[in-house]
# Entry
Amino acid sequence: MSMATILSKGTFAKRPFRKRSFKGGIYPPEQKGLAAGMPIEVIPTPEEVRLPLLQHLGAPCKQVIEPRSQVQLGDIIGRAKGFISAPIHASLRGTTARVSATTLPAGRRVDVIPIKADETQPFTDRAVYDEIFGGDWAIEELNNYDPEQIANTARDAGLVGLGGATFPTHIKLRRNKEKPISHMLINGAECEPYLTADYRLMLEAPRPVISGAILAGRAVDAEHVTVCIENNKPKAIKALRNAAEGTNVSVCVLKTKYPQGGEKQLISAVLGKTVPLGGLPLDVGVVVLNVGTTAALARAVLRGRPLTHRVVTVSGKGVMAPKNLLVPIGTSFRYLIDYCGGLNDVAQTVIAGGPMMGFAVGSLDIPVTKGTSGITVLTQHETRRFGFGGGDGSGQKPQTPCLRCGRCVSVCPMNLVPGRIAQAARTNHPQLAERYHADACVECGCCAFECPANIPVVQLIRLSKAMLRRKT
Amino acid sequence: MMVDVLVGLLPVMVMAVVVFRWSAVVEVGLCVLACLASEWLLNLVQKKPQTLGDFSAVVTGLLLGLSLPSGSSWYICVIGSVVAIGIGKAAFGGLGMNLFNPAMVGRAFVMLSFASQLGASAYVVTDSDVTVLSQATPLTIAKQYASDLAAGREVAGNVEHQLQAAEKFWPLFIGQVNGSLGETSAIALLLGGIYMCLRRAAAWQIPLGALLAGFVCAALARWTDLTPFTALRHLISGSFLLGAFFIATDPVTSPISSLGKFIFGLGVGIFTVLIRLFSGYPEGVMFAVLLMNAAVPLIDRWAVPKPMGAG
# Structure
């Protein structure tokens, strides 16, 4: 082994001194201080959870439970339909009610199964936390698990990408003879402003994160398993380094820049590899999983528990007491916000997720889904800063004509010409959208954040993409 | 963004007033007012919302005024402004839609219409108390010297003498030479220009490309004895810096990608020097910018950045 290989623990042998970042990107106000110091709290059992039958990328689930039937915590209530799908489990013990419907933050209307909670629950308060994050994680014995069994467990536990993309995890964990995996990257970048759910998880429960990382690496037979964190989370870096001691997992520290946690940006920053246009990380021998997903994987494999809870950050200057909460999936936004003291007088916009990639919601009665990493409540000033506003454009900064200044081009992490794709939407010009590769857009929102003319560039790009889909 | 342009132009305006006194204030002021008035009027007749608050008309007026010689008639300022805003911008659909730099459209119009009042000879005013006005502009002297040489004539003694004076570095750098109102002081232009680049109100790729290409072309010209000026003198004389930092960097009329901006800058630099050397005009920035403006759609088509992971 060469000196450079030893120095860099083998993972980054080729370019040991490369700056760990990507091209483009922005530095939005982080605002993580609001909730970063708040330990994960277990929310008191809500009276009701409402579980949408579509909480992942792919086909919606098929309802498999009759109304007014008794369900236990972890019972399957929606069965996966098709290969790219994930089952949905009851997140409490209770009685199901008639199927109703809800509108997800991104605008899709889906069926939901409500469950009324029983008086007694198998776990409450601290017991929930201990069952999910506490105890022993058998890091020494993980190599005894069968790789295929790990992927099957991920499938049966309904695991999806908890960072927000919600791609079914088991698909990523299948071994593929034609495309061997060299690197398993565990994404703890959490570059989205305000959100601290992954940070608290890494800080408080580094062992399940590492344990899940090892299992994921074993599932795909990855040569290297690397947890990637931005350098604005020194405590989490330390906690993970301690937990990873003596394992095959290494920790890689990245420059703090948005969108560092984007899959393609992460791969570029850590490995210097470029995912081909229209391709998957798989094509360059990489799998990326979120830290929350690996913790849930460890729980599923070692404890046989499906995905029923997740950590949600409730933050922003519009909420009384920002917190990080461990909640049953299906809990309503309203219940979470009320638990955080409610909205204050300056609250203006409630966002599912963070302000860069999240969607403003029209109602607080929508449920937390597997992909809800946070609820951000913005004040009027913040609303304007991040380019949100009423549906009629009220509350937004006034738009001015595009001056073609090219700032959107220089910040685009995918090296696109966002202004042109936006123009394609305005002029209803699918060929233009195609020529400028609208489909390659990851919708990170850097262009809209940076635009001096306050043009909602990323929203227009979404319209362009929809236009292209209609055409084909 | 436009406010940053105004701040960047501040040292240039100060030097214009220091060197040319009242005429700078009057002409630039007149151009700004005329631009604002035309914009207001055109919006009114087109029943469009008023757009004076975006300061783009102010910037156009400033650049037009600063590119005129001291002592231009009031109607030149007004006609230039009306054409700049009316034909240069409003006719294309307003801010963001125009193909050509409005200030340069206005200036080209008055320059071709009132050739005698804006030609090289118009810069010299003998009975003024502003001393720099008694000399021809450095580029005019250089042009005369070069054309005398090229024609095989003996260079007149006074031209030889004038050239020695015009070649001096410090007057060119500080701005104590004759020229258009805003173009004489290299130091003020550099200060303002670098400020604009740092504030990202101007894309640095454009001045970089222009200076690079201008330097190489001028150095070649010097090497082949086409001009008596060194490459450095070419860059700091005339409106090269004004053009490179303030005029060519108009985002609306320059390419959108970094590579495109750099190519655009190269083009501006090359054409400026070519026009200086081979045309009847001593200065070429204006036509160079307009020419490259016309090439922008082509550059934008060609210099599309490759998406991450493509090919």
